[in-house]
Amino acid sequence: MKISKEVTKIENSAVRLTATIAQEDVASGYKDSMAKYSKNIQIPGFRKGHVPVAVLERKYGEGLKAEITGELIDKALNEIISAEDMKDFRPLPYSQPTFENDDMPVLDTTKDLTFTLVYDIFPSVEIKKLDGIKIKVPQAEITQEDMDKELKSIQERNATVLDKKDDDPLEKDDIVTIDYKELGDDGAVIAGSEREDFVFTEGSGENIFKIDDDILGMKKGESKVITKTYAKDDKDADLAGKTKKISVTIKQLKIRNLPALDDDLAQDVNEKYKTLDDMKKDISRSMNLALERKLDEIKKQGLLEQLVEKNPIDLPKSMVQAENDGRWRMMAQQFKTTPEELEKMVTASGQTKEAMLLQWVGDTGKALKSRIIVDQLLRDRNISVTPDEIEEEYKKIAEQNDISVDEVKEHYKDLKAKEYLVDEVKENKLFETLYKEIKLEKGDKKSFSELFKDEAEA
Predict the structure, then answer these.
(1) I want to staple 91 with a disulfide (CB 3.0 to 4.6 A). Which of 119, 230, 284, 392 is the partner?
(2) pLDDT of residue 45
(3) Which residues does 299 contact at the CB level (< 8 Å), separation at least 6?
(4) Cβ neighbourhood burial of 166 (10 Å; 0-12, 13-18, 19+)
(5) What single DSSP character describes residue 101?
(6) What is the pLDDT of residue 455?
(7) What are phi and psi of 280, to 5 degrees?
(8) What is residue 62's predicted lDDT score, i.e. its pLDDT?
(9) DSSP calls for 275-304
(10) How do the residues of the chain divide into helix, strand and coil, expressed in percent and rounded to 5?
C-alpha cells in the first residue's frame, strides 16, 4: 500500500496524523472488499457468491463504502505505526485514535483517500543536568526517649484494664467514657450535638472539643458545663476563633495496669525473646531500619520533586485518566465494593471523586511525572542488575526481617514478585548514582519520634 504521512505534535503529548492512501490502492482495496462481500452476502433472487457488485452497490452502497473506508484506514494505520520512524509516535494502549473533529473521509475510488487522526503518545522528556539540586536531609537519630516511648507502647498494648473506684478522680492516662452535648447561648441543647459513651485516653487530646484539662479530677457520675474559647489559628476550622459551651458527664473511669518491663513481658510479646535485652535489641534494629528507610525516602522525594520541576512533562489526558481509573479500582477493592458503588457513596457524602483520590493517593500527575523521569533515567544510564546483586538483596532482606534466605527466595519465586524486586534494585542503584551528582546538605536535627511525627502531620 502506497501511503504518505505527516505527523504533528500537539498539546498534552498528543499528535495529529494526516495520511493519504494512493488512489490505485483505494480502488483496488474497494474492488477486493466488494468481491469478498459479493461471495458472502445472500440476497433473494441470487445464488450465494453470485451477487453482482452493481446490485450490492445499489442496495448497500453507502453502508458498504463506510465499512470499506474503515478497513482501508485501519490497514493503513497499522502499516504506519509499525514503521521504525514511528516508534516515538505510537498510540498509547488506552488512547484510541479518533478522527479530528469526527470528520471521517468519504470514499471516492477515483481519488486519493486522505484522513486525519488524533491520539495520545507516551510523553517525551529530556533530563537535564543535575546541577543546582540541593537536598536537606534531617540529622536524625534514635534517642533513649524514643526507645522509652516504644517500650511504653508495648506495655500499654499488653496492659490489663481495671475499673477505678467510684470516688477516684480522673487522672492522666486513665481511660474515660463520657456523654457530652453542645449548648447554645440560651443553655438549650444544640440538636445533633449529643454523643453518648465516647471513650478516649485522658491527656491524649483525642476528643473533638479538646477538653482533657477541663475534666481532669472529675469523678464517675459527675457532670460539668465547660465554656471554652479556641484560638483563631486552631487546626480545626470548626473550632477556630469560636467559643463553645459543652455539657460533659463522666460515665466510666478505667486504669491501665501496665506490666513490668522484664523478661516475662518480653517472652509474652514474642516467644523468640528470652530476655528483655533480646527484645530491646530487636526493637533497636527495627527502629534503625525504619529510620534508614525514612531518610532514604526523604532523599528520593526531594530529588524527584526538583527533577519534575526542572524537567516539564506534558502529560496525555488519557494517561492521567487511566491512572486515576486504576487507583479508583484499587480504592474500591479496599472498601470491598465496586468502583461504581464507591462513586455513589462518595457523591452522597458531598465529596467528589477527584477530591477523594487526591486525599487518599495524592497527586496523580506528580506521581506519573516522577515515574516517567525515573524510567527515562534508567534507560539513559543503562542501569541493570546482575544475578549476584539480586542474591545480595535476598541476604539483605533476610537479615532485615530475621528470616532465612531460602524463605526470602520462596517469597520471590513468583515471577511478578521477582520482577518487582529487580525493578526496585535497579531504582536503588540509579538513586545511589544520582546522589553523587547532587548536593546533600545536613538538615535540622530531629529525633526518631519527631521525624515520623512530621510525616503524620504532613
Answers:
(1) 119
(2) 64
(3) 135, 137, 431, 435, 440
(4) exposed
(5) G
(6) 60
(7) -60, -40
(8) 76
(9) SHHHHHHHHHHHHHHHHHHHHHHHHHHHHH
(10) 50, 20, 35
Per the confidence metrics, is the pTM higher than 0.90? no
CB neighbours of 101 closer than 8 A, spacing ≥ 6? none
- The pLDDT value recorded for residue 60 is 67
Angle between helices 353-361 and 339-348 in degrees, nearest 10: 100
Beta bridge partners of 114: 20
Q: What does the pLDDT read at residue 25? A: 94
Which grid cell is 447? 529525633
Q: Which three cell numbers stand for residue 196?
A: 453518648
- Listed as ranges, residues in the chain with pLDDT below 70 are 42, 44-47, 49-53, 59-61, 454-458
Query: What is the reported pLDDT for 457?
Result: 56
pLDDT at 147: 95
Using an 8 Å Cβ cutoff, are 83 and 74 in contact? Answer: no
Cell of 374: 525515573
The SS3 assignment for 314 reads coil
**What's the CA gap between 317 and 150, in Å, rounded?**
46
Instruction: Please report which residue ranges of 335-411 form alpha helices under DSSP H.
Output: 339-348, 353-361, 364-380, 387-401, 405-411
pLDDT score, position 22: 95
Predicted local confidence at residue 36, as pLDDT? 81
- What contacts 310, CB < 8 A, 6 or more positions away? 128, 133
